[in-house]
Amino acid sequence: xxxxxxxxxxxxxxxxxxxxxxxxKRPLFNNLNLTIEQGxxxxxxxxxxxxxxxxxxxxxxxxxxxxxxxxxxGSNFGPSKIxxxxxxxxxxxxxxxxxxxxxxxxxxxxxxxxxxxxxKQKVSEAIEKVRLTDKSDNLLASSSGGEQQRAYxxxxxxxxxxxxxxDEPTNGLDERSKDEVMEILKLLQTKDNVTIVLVxxxxxxxxxxxxxxxxxxxxxxxSVGDQTLLEDANVKF
Length: 237
What we know:
globular; three-stranded antiparallel sheet; ATP-binding; 7 helices; transport; single chain; alpha/beta; ATP hydrolysis activity
């Protein structure tokens, strides 16, 4: 059965310390401090151009900040325990893979260029988690936007990550698809203890799901809090 290995409650995974980042003369955030713990559902919100996606890449250590640092502090936690779901994918209308094969791409390697029985089981379980079992033979290219996004999440799951980082996972989706994606992410967090970190322009979609919210204010300042942060600020972007 697909399962994320349990860790102690509130174990720190990532420590962001005194992070400062900007491009040329445009500061994004100054002296940002943040702790991400096992089982968090962290939503990063803010207007366009405030550095939300940039911060994700710094957390994954794909970008270097001007100052400050990101530390992986969890027991045995590191880059191999993080899966990333980017904002966009180049899936053309002629993309040949069905959903099952697409999800399985994450497990291919140069030594064994096919899926083992164990791999196929992992793919099936990940697809079940995102409610696409009955769609697994469908071509990814002809699937709806919501189904494609759920397939991307399934692909992120097959390596049994402790943390999934998502950049605008509900962007461009209709309300029903948004709700389904958010419900799946919430279940991964609450039932499987997967740490969720996501960027969104839609504060309403994360209002009742987040355990922690980071709001980048657009003037290089930031706020960290729980769901009451959205209510107090009456946030709209």
